[in-house]
Design a protein that fits this description.
- Helix content is 72%, strand content 0%.
- The protein is mostly helical.
Length: 488
Amino acid sequence: MISHFLKLEWKQYFRSANWQKSIFLNILLIFFALYFIVSFLILGVGAYFFLEEQYPNQDPLVIVNSFLIYAIIGDLIFRYLMQKLPVMNIKPLLTLPIKKNKIVHFILVKSSFSFFNIMSLFFYIPFAVVLIMQDYNVVGVLGWLFTMILLIQSANFLNFLINKNNVVLGILVALLLGGYLVQYFDIFNLPAFIGYGFDFVYQNPITVILFAIILVLLYVTNYKQLRNEVYLDALISEKTKEVNASDLSFTEKLGDLAPFIKNDLRLMWRNKRTKSGIWMLALGLGYGLIFYTNPMYAEMQVMYVLVGIFSTGTFLINFGQFIPAWDSSYYKMLMSQNFKYERYLKSKFTIMTISVVALFVLGIPYVYFGWKILLVHFAAMIYNIGVNTHVILYGGTFNRKKINLDEKAAFNFQGTGAVQWLIGLPLMILPMIIFGLINWLVSFEIAALTLAILGFIGIALHKKLMAGITKKYITNKYVMIHAFNQEN
């Protein structure tokens, strides 16, 4: 029966219309997978020797153990955002004489061989082999390695239990940032404390049994949850949910733009695709911590622009690049209404502008790393409002792919076309080139001022730019209506 299930999975995958239409994206994902595999393999082989060279007085295994807390929590967050639930087309099977237990077990075992579970092994296994070659205790290393494998599988099943629970995701992000901050400010060395536990595992390999018990408990919990849902009536029944009607009366102050802004706010809050994208705001705000805390980037001032554009424009980029595809499900109905198209686009512009200003204000604490950073972030904010908002709106005139709002944003390329890949050049690369060139030829202050001036010019020409963009949308209106009627 398991062999039969595997054959059905194989046929379903390669016969699907999605495989035929998205073969380029599938090839791209294969290259990404190979990149991660090679990177982890190189890291696993070379980590011991690198750490031994950089920290000659410390044990490389102890150093790695002290960072495992970040790896485990980061893995859970990555899985939450990227990993899909282990599903198969079980509805036709429920009418056949197949035991439901076998179907559920197949779903769960299949998830154990996910790429998310295999990827980390390309680090842990080579690292364990190097440890053995360096005369570490073989039984201790094997106990440590099996503990890592069991933790990876436990994270796999834990992710299915916490899936769609945004509170748990918030707790994980808080733990990750909190652990880093308490260590950075020398309040408490949480990574080292957790590392002692993994050192204990190496010294006492018998403790691997505890992690095996945790894995079994998570598997059984997932099994019971899925087993209770594998019924035909549960699959075909419709669930009626009460709409959470938030108070959006504050938008009335925006005049004739209020109806459009209300619709966009409801769309963002009620749908999986847009709701997942909202979490990108937190990642965008924390983007600067990658660069500003690293001494290597202290003299690379052009990176300030990259961080400034991205952190203040996270929402602008994630939301704006899919205008008007967000409304593709009802775009035909929307275009039949009696309103000026310019009002529709102006509402999008207003939302993006408010988000840019709000993200800049929230990012003001970056001044802790220097006043120059705050200056560049301010210039980037003005540039985003005056230039990038118009660039993103113009790019929307070329969107031709429908978006399914019921799917998550992470690892979801639906609605993504050549426009989304190419638009990154004027959004991110161009301001970096302008800033870098003027900073090299003149000075840092003049380079930041130039970005701000370009933004102010865009703001001054807003009405003329919007008129031209609106005309382009109206010209392409019927082409987009036809395109959005097609399923990706």
